[in-house]
Amino acid sequence: MEKAGGSPSVGGSYPQKNAEILSSQYGINLFLAGLLLTFAWAVHAVGISKSHLLSYLITLMLIQLLWMLWYLGRSCTQRRLIRDKDTHAGARWLKCGITLFAVITLILDSFKIGYYIDFSNCLSPTEGIFPVTHAVHTILQVYFLWCHAKDIIQSFKTLERFGVIHSVFTNLLLWTNGVLTESKHQLNEHKERLITLGFGNITIVLDDHAPQCNCTTTTLCSIFSQGIYYLYPFNIEYHILASTMLYVLWKNIGRKVEQHQQHKTPFKFHGITVGLIFGLVVLTSTIAIVVVYLIQIGRSKIKSELALTMFYLHAIFVLALMCTAGIVALLIYRLEDRSLDNSKNPARKLDAELLVGTAAGSWLLSWGSILAIICAQAHPKYTWYNLPYSVLVIIEKYIQNLFIIESIHREQEKVNDDIKTLRIVTLSRGSTLSLTPAYKEIYNGRAAPESGEVPCLCGRESHGRATAEASSIMHSASDVPFCSGSSVTNSKRRILKNIAAFLFLCNLSLWIPPAFGCRPEYDNGLEEIVFGFEPWIIVVNLAMPFSIFYRMHSAASLFEVNCKT
After folding, report:
1. Which of 219, 240, 324, 447 is surrounded by the most beta carbons within 10 Å?
2. What is the rounded CA–CA span in Å between residue 529 and residue 463?
3. What's the pLDDT tens digit per position in 22-71?
């Protein structure tokens, strides 16, 4: 709220701060109630069924749908008004990513509808209503984020805070529900595989939530039930991405926009061939490792041990390469003297906090594995590979977080004003003709070549072309050491772009194994003996979702770094 004169009112910000606190507390309580309901269903609490949980989620989605429709309708009536935008929020590549995950989520919903139809005799009606509501919710939410993720809301701020925070925690609860359902499926498979590894002293009790009736079409039921769990990783990533984009929208409500705007930095493949080649090799080999792992694990004790050994050796090699690449990038940054951009930016602040916060999940698992190896009385040969693997996971995330956070905070390279305004002119038949655009235009990218490199203008080529007619004159030539300076800068820039591209593909590669069931933390077996089966499984189920999200979020951040570098 502001006074008529335009100066901020001291009392005006107080109600808005209260609205922010009240809305955040509303969202937290909404989430805690749903979390407790989810936990009660997971442990088979008396009087709590899946229909109760789904009814709660359906209600939350319907409320969000009403709010989004109201917001879209109000935006249409005010579409001629000039709205403030946060140029850092809702990048196009992020919208494309969430759209891809949303499309796969819609396929998942169609599978759930088919599954409900085949088991309709013994399933609650809510299990049929939920995927339909979720599909509508997904379509409208993606449209909403495409159109309004950059908005800085300045009207109806109190009401909008509650609407946006409701949407944030609704997506977090849908993410929690997806994580729990997928984890229960993975846990059942894990319990069965432990027997083949020789851990017979662990009690195997399957957690079964299967329908208590026969399927009307056996083949279709098998396709739907198996296909659902392969699609869950994309559904999980969709909801966590949606919640982060909505959170940035919530933080931007009532924000005062700074004058300078971020320039668009499109992604280009030029100059990152080496990084892409090495990254694609890692991606291809990882997919092959995952396929072999899922085929071999659980077949026999020997095959399971070979699968685990193969996974650890491959992961150690990839993590070592990533550590080396990250160190090289940080060393290049140390050689450069460039200040950091500390301006207020909710999207960038959230990115940094999510990197460190979600990395704690895999750090917890890694320290648990290290302690298990140290404390265990017997060590099968394959478990020793877990030690360097766990150590490298800790180091690699530490280095990568430093690289990404510094990259997104670094200011764009600036050029001296004297150099920007310098013009190269040539004398031709008594008149001065401009041979090249102003350096200011070159550095602003309007006359730069497609490669993005600063041209080396030493005057030799232009002098050769104009020797027959005129002589070239360079003003302040001694102050323009472009040839040597720009080549060094471009070399550093090219190395950094290749490193970012390589790390981007490596993070996508390391997202695939845990997302699709290749989880040595489950199958290793040593941790269950040291910590106990139930305690370690609880730790894994809590930490693994954050570890999976870290890889996808890192890949998204590295894509942004590549565009910015």
Report:
1. 240
2. 78
3. 888 999 999 999 999 988 888 778 888 889 999 999 999 999 999 999 98
